[in-house]
TrEMBL record:
Protein name stated in the entry: Aliphatic nitrilase
A Pfam family hit: CN_hydrolase
InterPro entries, per the entry: C-N_Hydrolase, C-N_Hydrolase_sf, Nitrilase, Nitrilase/CN_hydratase_CS, Nitrilases_CHs
Entry's Gene Ontology molecular function annotations: nitrilase activity
Similarity comment: Belongs to the carbon-nitrogen hydrolase superfamily. Nitrilase family.
PROSITE patterns found in the cross-reference section: CN_HYDROLASE (PS50263), NITRIL_CHT_2 (PS00921), PIPLC_X_DOMAIN (PS50007)
All copies of domain CN hydrolase, residue ranges: 7-273
Length: 352
């Protein structure tokens, strides 16, 4: 029989602190406490919420964005570090699962990173957006296949993608094939206008239907004062309005509660996990509705490393040469398949 289980979740739409990374983290911890007080077991925040989404890169040409980019480096999150410690402590204190988007700094590069903390405070997923979009490519590096992973948590199996990663059907299918129960989507919000909000809604509702899972999506919010601080050009300010669609969607593609499309707030909804089986009984895209003998996905989930090293086996001492070798002597040429360290080159000085 299908297990009767209900999970209460929260999707947070609030503004960051554009002047202080610590200020944004404080807002995160405050929202976790507020959602937990309302009974939420999962709390989801917007894309790269800490310290903030790089809105400047959308309205300012790269030649003028250097100072803002460097400030983002200074305020970015190192994993592990003080920010992850603070959020982990909040998750553990309130016994909730937290999904937080951050700008992660790894030495000389920034990444759009999604962090999943389990209810005991442990960091169970650290994934980087695999392809930054348009202006974002000047800000972030690319993630790898290690992040296309569904993890077990206190509320169920969680998968996550950021923003336009949802337009990569193979990335979505990689998570679907791992039987995600709750899909966490994160978008920046306050961007592009109403058309962006409409596109987000279509995208997350379709994924819920296709995957047969719940989708919890959080978008960010900018105040009018923050928009003016990002750009004083009135002709560009409209590009930083709208585009908000904080929503919770069922496996049947329906909004569980009305979405939040403007202002700050926290959506709370109870997820009837039995709806997953109800949907998949009709259409399981990675089960009885799949045709893996015709169509299948290969995922390279190895970490992308800029350098790998190996400690070679000890090199045996070379045997003394007893006679002069000819140019065609086999000893001068590698034997196919022979380990590199066993290949001995014969060097001769020219006759003098």
């Amino acid at each position: 029989m299908t297990e009767k289980r209900t999970v209460r979740v929260a999707a947070v739409q609030i503004a960051p602190d554009l002047d202080s990374a610590d200020g944004t983290v404080g807002r995160v911890c405050q929202a976790i406490a507020e959602a937990a007080a309302k009974g939420a077991a999962l709390v989801v925040f917007p894309e790269t919420f800490v310290p903030y989404y790089p809105y400047f890169s959308f309205v300012r040409p790269p030649v003028l964005a250097g100072a803002d980019h460097l400030t983002l480096y200074e305020r970015a999150v190192v994993v592990p570090g003080p920010v992850t410690d603070a959020v982990a402590a909040a998750a553990r204190s309130h016994g909730v699962v937290v999904v937080l988007g951050v700008n992660e700094r790894d030495h000389g590069s920034l990444y759009n990173t999604q962090l999943v903390f389990d209810a005991d405070g442990s960091l169970i997923l650290q994934r980087r957006k695999i392809t930054p979009t348009y202006h974002e490519r000047m800000i972030w590096g690319q993630g790898d296949g290690t992040g296309l992973t569904v993890v077990d948590s206190a509320v169920g199996r969680i998968g996550a993608l950021a923003c336009w990663e949802h337009y990569n059907p193979l990335a979505r299918y990689a998570l679907m094939a791992q039987h995600e129960e709750i899909h966490v989507a994160q978008f920046p919000g306050s961007l592009v206008g109403q058309i962006f909000a409409d596109q987000i809604e279509v995208t997350i509702r379709h994924h819920a239907l296709e995957s047969g899972c719940f989708v919890v999506n959080a978008t960010g919010w900018l105040t009018e004062a923050q928009i003016a601080a990002i750009t004083a050009d009135a002709s560009l300010q409209n590009a930083l309005r709208g585009g908000c669609m904080t929503a919770i969607v069922s496996p049947e593609g329906k909004h569980v509660v009305p979405p939040l499309t403007s202002g700050e707030g926290i959506l709370i909804a109870d997820l009837d996990m039995g709806l997953i089986t109800k949907r998949k009984r009709m259409m399981d895209s990675v089960g009885h509705y799949a045709r893996p003998e015709l169509l299948s996905l290969r995922l390279d989930n190895r970490p992308a490393m800029p350098m790998t090293t190996a400690i070679p086996a000890a090199i045996p001492p070379a045997a003394p040469l007893e006679q002069e070798h000819t140019d065609h002597d086999d000893a001068r040429f590698p034997i196919p398949g022979e380990p590199a360290h066993q290949r001995v080159a014969v060097l001769r000085h020219p006759a003098g």
